[in-house]
Amino acid sequence: MGISIDSPAANAAFAKQIGVTFPLLSDMNKEVLTAYGILKPYDVHGGKYQWARRTTIVVDKDGKIQHVEYDDSAVNPNNAVSICTGLHDKHEK
Amino acid sequence: MKRIVTAIAGLFLLLGLAGQFSAAAQEEAIAKTTLKEGDVAPDFTLTNDKWEQVKLSDFRGKKNVILAFYVLAFTGG
Q1: Tally of structural domains, chain A
Q2: What's the pTM value of the predicted model, to 2 decimals?
Q3: CB-closest option in A14, A27, A55 to B74
């Protein structure tokens, strides 16, 4: 699932544009970003903003965190997908 | 037409942000979660792009979940 501070309407348009098949969740109040400790300050053209740090977290079926990746590493989902698939296979055996 | 304008606007935003991120943002304190492997992921309920409520704990015992936090829609971040 993708998560950002965008509105559901913006996420719907974004989902349509890039053709994602997984849900995009809206954290407009930044509550989840704050709870997860990944609210990051950005300075864009002199404006101060707080958005998500690019982060990928794998959560297993027990609700426990199995993996965390940041920034450029987090942009490529292959590692997280591989770990998630491994968890699935491990559970099935 | 509207979609094209939106796409172009998104591209410019992406290019603009890319330059800024590398310089200014990295000088700021880098946010880093204190959560670590083995910790229970804090539960949440958020609205998805179809205006449905999604609760993380609803996946317990059913599915592994990947949470991909991204900076903004219409950017590459």
Answers
A1: 2
A2: 0.74
A3: A14
